[in-house]
Structure formats: structure tokens, C-alpha cells
Design brief:
The complex is a heterodimer of chains A (164) and B (358). Chain A has 8 helices and 2 strands. By secondary structure, chain A is mainly α. Chain A has a two-stranded antiparallel sheet with strand order 1-2. The N and C termini of chain A lie far apart (73 Å). Chain B contains 12 helices and 10 strands. In chain B, β6 and β7 form a beta hairpin. In chain B, α8 packs across α9 and α9 packs antiparallel against α10. Classes of the chains: A mainly alpha (164), B alpha+beta (358). At the A-B interface, α6 and α7 of A face α5, β6, β7 and α8 of B.
Chain lengths: 164, 358
């Protein structure tokens, strides 16, 4: 017997009992896997973000271009686009500016709107440059300490103190 | 701090009070806001030192608010696994905050109407929980909490994108509005899938009792907004509020249908559930939740007359693993918990029976 979805031999014979009537499926291994993962109620739904990202990247980018994009890293927190793409979490507020070109279509896809329309901080917003500067200095300080470059680390610490 | 947790254990959070508008079907209303400090990386790029500094800054800000003097401030990293699970069961912290590592904490209001988590997926997760359908006052409360923190902290905010969050799915308002519904009749009549598909088409998400990824337990479902950007907070709330009357109506129709078409079967079903809960010698938490759901519907339909909703709501929480252990005051293996659970149910439900005799 052939798989009902493709040309491969059907090796899985599944009887679905959850509907009003039993339904039989004859599937090859690959199709059965897809079928089971689709209908398994205990499987957590794939995160929406990962889905949208995967689609967007498949459509929009050639392999080399994606490889180049993956290497780009935020000058403030150091996160690479690859890390964001695979983990689904950004590294710092500046990423929204640094990866703006990649994030804009993603955000539009998720929310259907490009612009915030809700409340704003009542106490005003500090200039973003000044805020991200602190994140950058702290990170460089960490890296300097890791490299045992204590001279640079102490210089950075002074710089940070001036800002705070 | 442990003393304070013990103090919570025997009581029941405000959101499970079982009163408030439409409380036979609407269990609770919840709003959470995600906020980040502007001068720290998001959690993913934080080391222990960064997390400790964020924790300190947030703790300091919370302490400065006069009205919050009586909050219970808990160092989540210092808790035992049972205590962390206990806070998850009460919905005061998320599973993510319980399971992650590094400096993290939660500030809990004593009536449990709100909690503030520090170092979850975002630096701050503020949540307000009210009993019944009560999103308007939940929004007023959380908006005020957010303003109080905003006066003392520097939020990461973008002119075009609004509040910046670690995950772009929360950017903008950073707000998730959810209403927890008890929908047993829609489950019995197999209409629940259809209802959820139409909710999803309207851009609403459906989750189980304990949020993201959790399965629906005991026919309890949370309906919440999916989108967080491009609409004001009140519009996002309205979107959820607008759909609730229809869901309540569906559930009421399904209940009316069951009463009309198969009153005997339904009465039998809820009575048997009640019987098992009153007499079991050992029982799992899944079975307990499943049966409590039937009994809850039976009380609302006046098929069971000697029990009240607050008692059932309390049992939903008190029969969960960590609560059982906190109430008993010692750690118990699964088999011992199942016996302890049966004892608790027996004593609480029979007390209900006794009370109505008077």
C-alpha cells in the first residue's frame, strides 16, 4: 500500500478515534511523523515568532546573504543575528535600532501594525544613546576583565562612573 | 520569608474568591505588563552581576513606594523547589521565573491582587489578578503600579515601538490581558474546538490553566490578546472584553442543552464526581481537577446544593502538589500525596455537607 500523501510505501496505519467517527490513515514514516506532531495535543504549539522568522528568512534571503546577516552583531550587547534568530530573544534595547531592517517586517507580521499607540512613560524618556552607552561600557569592561586587561577595565569603570 | 509563605498557604488568593461579575463561568481577570530597564541588557545577555544589579535597582524602587510597605518580597533563587512550585500554583510567579537561574525575586501584595516579578523573561513582569470579569479595574490598578515604578526606574522605551521587550512578540504595550473561563459544558458537547478556532481567527490566544504551553486542566481556559503593538491598552482590553459575553452565552447554552436533553445523565455525572471526591482513599491531582470541574458545574446548575463555589475554587488550588505539602508541612512522594489529597478532599467536602445541615 502507498502512503496516502506521497509515493512512498505506507508503513504507519493510524486509526483516529478523537472525531465523531473513526478515521483511518495510511502513511509513510515522514508523513506519519508530520501527522502525529500536528495532532498531538500535548505538543506545545511552535512559538509564533520562530515560525514567522523562518518563513521570512526562507522567502527573503539567499544562503550567503543569510550567513552574512547571521554574523552581524550588536555593538552594544554583542548579540549576533544568528543568536536572536535561533533563540527568539533579543539582547538589549539597542537591538531594535541595530537590527531595524530585519525586525521591521517581522514586527509587522506579528502585530499587523508598525507603531505604538499605547501609554508612554510619564516621567519622560532618557536619550537612548546615553542609556545604551552604559550597557556597552559594562560589556567591554567584562571582556577586558576576561582578557585580564585590567588597565582598560579600570579606564572603562571611570567612564561608567562619569555617566552614572 | 518562609513564614509569610506559610501564611499564604492556608488562605486563598483574591482571584479565586469566586465572586465578582459572571463568576460561575469567569474565574478571574488578569493583566500583565512587561517592562525593561533602559541601561541594562535584556536577560539573555545578562550575567549574574547584571542580574544582581537589576534585582537591586528594582527592589530599591519597590521599597520606596509608601503604599507598598506591606508587600511580601521573596528571593525566588533562595527558595526550595516546593516553595517555588507553590508560588507557581498560586499564579504569583510564572514557571519560567521558578525554573530559571540567577538572582530573581517577586514582590507579592498580601491579598494577592498583584505581584511584581524581577528577572523573568523581561526585567519586570507586573501582574494584577481579580476575581470574576473585572478587567477595567484590573487595568486601573496595574496602570497605577506601572506609573509608581516608572517614577523610580528608567524604562526602555522607543518613540515608534513603545516599551521594548526581550521578545518582539511583546513589544509596544508589553501587555497581556487574559480572562480565565470554566467551560465544562462546551467540552462535553464537543464544541470547544470550534469556539477556539473562531477566537484564534479574531487574533485571540487560548491557553490552559497555567498559561503558555500548559494543557487545559479541569476545563479551565485562558483567553488572551495575541497582539501588543499598534493598539492602545484600553483597545486591547476591549478586544478581549467584547468576546467574553459570547463565550459565556455559548457555555450557558451548552449547559441548558445538557440539562434539557440529558438531565439524568448530567446529574449522575456530577453526583458520581462528588461521590468519588468525598470517598476516595488515594487520588491524583489530574483526576481531582477533572472531578472538581464536574462538581463545580453541578453546583452552578443547582444539581448539587450542599456545596459552595468558593470551597471548590479553594480545593482546585489546595489539592495541587506543592500546596498539599505546604499545608501538611512536609515533603511527600507522589503516592503519599495522593493519600493526603484524598484526606483533604474528604475533610473539606464533608465539612461542606455538615455546614449545610445546620
Amino acid at each position: 500500500m502507498k502512503c496516502q500523501n506521497c509515493e512512498k510505501p505506507a508503513t504507519f496505519h493510524i486509526t483516529e478515534l478523537t472525531g465523531p467517527q473513526p478515521v483511518e490513515h495510511h502513511l509513510c514514516e515522514g508523513c506519519a511523523k508530520n501527522y502525529l506532531s500536528e495532532t498531538d495535543p500535548t505538543a506545545t504549539p511552535e512559538p509564533m515568532l520562530a515560525n514567522v522568522l523562518a518563513k521570512q528568512i526562507k522567502l527573503g534571503q539567499a544562503a550567503e546573504e543569510l550567513a552574512r546577516l547571521d554574523q552581524r552583531s550588536c555593538p552594544v550587547c554583542g548579540i549576533t543575528f544568528h543568536e536572536f534568530r535561533t533563540k527568539g530573544r533579543l539582547g538589549c534595547p539597542h537591538d531594535y535600532t541595530f537590527f531595524e531592517r530585519e525586525l521591521t517586517p517581522l514586527i509587522l507580521n506579528i502585530h499587523g501594525e508598525p507603531k505604538h499607540a499605547g501609554k508612554r512613560p510619564r516621567c519622560g524618556v532618557v536619550a537612548p544613546d546615553q542609556q545604551t552607552e552604559r550597557i556597552r561600557i559594562r560589556r567591554e569592561m567584562k571582556e577586558a576583565i576576561e582578557k585580564e586587561d585590567y588597565e582598560r577595565a579600570s579606564k572603562l569603570r571611570d567612564e561608567l562612573r562619569r555617566l552614572e | 520569608m518562609t513564614i509569610n509563605l506559610e501564611e499564604l498557604a492556608s488562605r486563598c488568593g483574591e482571584w479565586l474568591r469566586g465572586s465578582g461579575p459572571q463568576s460561575d463561568i469567569v474565574i478571574s481577570s488578569r493583566i500583565r505588563l512587561a517592562r525593561n530597564l533602559a541601561d541594562f541588557p535584556f536577560i539573555r545577555r545578562c550575567n549574574e552581576m547584571d542580574k544582581a544589579a537589576i534585582e537591586k535597582a528594582c527592589h530599591h524602587a519597590i521599597e520606596q513606594v509608601d503604599a507598598w510597605r506591606s508587600l511580601i518580597y521573596v528571593d525566588v533563587g533562595a527558595l526550595t523547589a516546593v516553595d517555588r512550585q507553590f508560588l507557581v500554583e498560586r499564579q504569583l510567579i510564572s514557571r519560567e521565573l521558578a525554573d530559571t537561574s540567577g538572582p530573581r525575586s517577586v514582590a507579592i501584595e498580601r491579598q494577592e491582587t498583584f505581584s511584581i516579578m524581577v528577572n523573568e523573561e523581561d526585567h519586570l513582569r507586573i501582574q494584577v489578578m481579580h476575581s470574576g470579569l473585572d478587567l477595567t479595574s484590573a487595568w486601573e490598578q496595574i496602570n497605577q503600579i506601572d506609573d509608581l515604578l516608572d517614577e523610580r526606574l528608567n524604562y526602555a522605551f522607543h518613540e515608534r515601538l513603545g516599551y521594548l521587550t526581550a521578545c518582539p512578540t511583546n513589544v509596544g504595550t508589553g501587555m497581556r490581558v487574559s480572562v480565565m473561563l470554566h467551560l465544562p459544558a462546551l467540552v462535553i458537547t464537543q464544541q470547544i474546538e470550534k469556539a477556539f478556532r473562531s477566537l484564534q481567527k479574531m487574533g485571540l490566544a487560548v491557553r490552559g490553566l497555567y498559561g503558555e504551553g500548559s494543557q487545559a486542566m479541569g476545563d479551565f481556559y485562558q483567553i488572551s490578546n495575541q497582539v501588543t503593538l499598534g493598539k492602545s491598552e484600553t483597545d486591547l482590553i476591549q478586544q478581549v472584553v467584547d468576546i467574553i459575553p459570547a463565550m459565556i452565552e455559548y457555555e450557558r447554552q451548552a449547559r441548558a442543552f445538557l440539562v434539557k436533553e440529558s438531565r439524568k445523565d448530567l446529574h449522575d455525572r456530577v453526583s458520581r464526581a462528588y461521590g468519588i471526591l468525598c470517598t476516595a482513599q488515594t487520588i491524583s491531582s489530574e483526576e481531582t481537577l477533572h472531578l472538581l470541574s464536574s462538581v463545580r458545574m453541578g453546583v452552578n446548575l443547582e444539581l448539587i446544593k450542599d456545596l459552595d463555589i468558593p470551597t471548590i475554587n479553594k480545593l482546585v488550588i489546595h489539592t495541587q502538589p506543592a500546596h498539599l505539602q505546604k499545608l501538611r508541612g512536609l515533603e511527600l512522594e507522589t503516592a503519599d500525596r495522593n493519600v493526603e489529597r484524598a484526606n483533604l478532599l474528604k475533610s473539606q467536602l464533608r465539612r461542606g455537607l455538615g455546614a449545610s445541615d445546620n
